[in-house]
Amino acid sequence: MSKSKILVVGGTGYIGKRIVKASLAQGHPTFVLMRREIGYEVEKLQTLLSFKQQGAQLVEGSFSDHQSLVNAVKEVDVVICTMSGVQFRSHNILLQLKLVDAINEAGNIKRFLPSEFGMDPSRMEHRVEYGKETFEDKMIVRKAIEDAKIPYTYISANCLGGYFVGNLSQTNTLVPPKNRVSIYGDGNQKVVFMDEDDVATYTVKSVDDPRTLNKTLYLRPHENILTHNQLVEKWEKLTDKTLQKVHISAQDFLASMKDLDHAYKAGFERIYQIFYDGCLMNFEIGEHGEEASNLYSEVRYTRMDEYLQRYL
């Protein structure tokens, strides 16, 4: 069976550039949207040109030009969008509604994967106070997709390693603490940690798979389901050093958010939901979802002790 042609929107971003790499590696004809608004963002341009050297095709388009999006979409079979929804960077989730309109008009797309790649928003929409607009906006996009009867797959990738593993899930750094580590509650809630390249690999594998059509693909590889305590233990074993552990109660953690601005409160509340409420593992996947490592057992995913080795 021939590989679907894939258009990546947001291809120069944190997850997007990995999606492009995975798409090329898996033999898909790969297209990357080059937005006309790129201006003087030379690093983005150089990234796009490097994709071209690797065999991707650059397709010019603009979210302010509906027809250019329609034309770009008509070039491919599948669209994967990775636009940012992080408050402390940029928050562009609803811009995807223009992409939904273009896909609907083009009428040729057999799968759309919108920008999610974190918690399942359908389970979070009414559970958070700060930063809830991210989940609400993702659900607005989902509704537009489903109302237009566009075939879809949603990706729930849980905790990305760059934000949650290298820093042992601390709130004030992206590198491991040297002497002291904060542990959330008793540190025993189950959490799912993912290597970003593996997220891309699983995502691309799903695009031609009828088992993931109109479903959510949850990334929950067994050996990456760890508690906070277990993650810290892995680092201590690698470094042969014991860290001082300070357990933070739920009450104290919530109190620490008081004087933060909205964007950081949103980030802290996600940590609360993950490490205190256990929101990533407190439900069964059910008939409307699939688990990636079960479907694609041939993928040799990165374990978190391997991920941590890059910080030594």
Automatic annotation (TrEMBL):
Manganese recorded as keyword: no
InterPro entries: NAD(P)-bd_dom_sf (IPR036291), NmrA-like (IPR008030), NmrA-type/Isoflavone_red_sf (IPR050608), PCBER-like (IPR045312)
Biological processes annotated in GO: lignan biosynthetic process
One Pfam family cited in the UniProt record for this chain: NmrA
Organism superkingdom: Eukaryota
NmrA-like domain segment(s): 3-308
Keyword annotations: NADP, Oxidoreductase
Keyword Transferase annotated: no
GO molecular function, one term: pinoresinol reductase activity
SUPFAM superfamilies on file: NAD(P)-binding Rossmann-fold domains (SSF51735)
Similarity section: Belongs to the NmrA-type oxidoreductase family. Isoflavone reductase subfamily.
Protein name: NmrA-like domain-containing protein
Organism the protein comes from: Lactuca saligna (Willowleaf lettuce)
